[in-house]
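Lab notebook, design round three. We kept the backbone fixed and only want residue identities now. Task for the bench partner: fill in a sequence for the structure below.
Input structure tokens:
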């Protein structure tokens, strides 16, 4: 019997109660979901394992934490200067810089100290106080110096700073050079008008240094002196004195110098440290 005849006999068959195509579609979706789920599970497993591994490494006993690398700082600017006297212009510039360094050192070592006018000769017209001393020179490298009156915590007196050759190249110009030992040179006697206390040593940088205190037996003067060897065959000398006035008219303002020896030493070292070869 042909299919056509059979169909005609039984008529149109009822729709099937089982949705075969739906079953097929659901099965495909289930397989896809299982594949996706397996892939996600594998990824999650790897991620968890990696996280645990990192955590274990970070928490291993004895493991030192990472040390930040130090950033190299730029070198400090060299603010030192040279003592140059080969022309009037360079000598003037050197003298001006020395005046600035002396003023800066005094303000740092003795806050509140003020410069006061001190006459250089009798009947000199008075000048205003508060002016830092100006260094003078001869236009050559053999001498530069300055002095001024100072007032500090009610004490008055004078402060002077000078720079001279350490060793004279021309012996006929005077002594062969600055005398560093405390023992006086042969043939030189102690000045009987003063009691002298001396200490020879070196600066923190290794330069020669000599410290002296002279106390007047009659005038009751007190003078602290310090000498420091500088580069370029030069010596710096600084002194502080408790006397006010000029020459024979000078009298002690008080029993002590306006600055202590330690303060004078700090001022001299501050200036010397700014001078380079």
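Proposed sequence:
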């Amino acid at each position: 019997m042909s299919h056509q005849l059979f169909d005609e006999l039984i008529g149109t068959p009822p729709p099937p109660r089982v949705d075969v195509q739906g079953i097929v579609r659901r099965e495909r979706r289930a397989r896809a979901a299982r594949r996706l789920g397996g892939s996600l599970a594998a990824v999650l497993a790897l991620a968890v394992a990696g996280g645990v591994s990192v955590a274990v490494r970070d928490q291993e006993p004895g493991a030192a934490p990472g040390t930040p690398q130090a950033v190299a700082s730029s070198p400090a600017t060299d603010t030192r200067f040279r003592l140059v006297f080969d022309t009037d212009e360079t000598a003037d510039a050197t003298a001006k810089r020395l005046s600035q360094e002396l003023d800066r050192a005094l303000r740092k070592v003795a806050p509140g100290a003020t410069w006061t006018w001190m006459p250089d000769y009798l009947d000199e017209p008075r000048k205003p106080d508060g002016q830092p001393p100006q260094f003078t020179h001869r236009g050559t490298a053999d001498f530069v110096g300055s002095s001024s009156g100072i007032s500090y915590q009610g004490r008055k007196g004078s402060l002077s700073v000078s720079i001279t050759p350490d060793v004279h190249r021309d012996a006929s110009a005077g002594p062969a050079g600055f005398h560093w030992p405390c023992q006086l040179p042969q043939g030189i006697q102690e000045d009987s008008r003063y009691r002298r206390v001396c200490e020879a040593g070196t600066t923190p940088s290794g330069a020669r240094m000599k410290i002296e205190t002279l106390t007047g037996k009659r005038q009751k003067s007190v003078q602290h002196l310090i000498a420091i060897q500088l580069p370029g065959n030069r010596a710096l000398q600084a002194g502080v004195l408790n006397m006010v006035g000029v020459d024979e008219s000078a009298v002690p303002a008080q029993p002590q110098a306006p600055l202590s020896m330690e303060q004078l030493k700090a001022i001299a070292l501050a200036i010397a440290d700014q001078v380079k070869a």
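Keep this in mind before ordering anything: Residues 21-54 form one domain.
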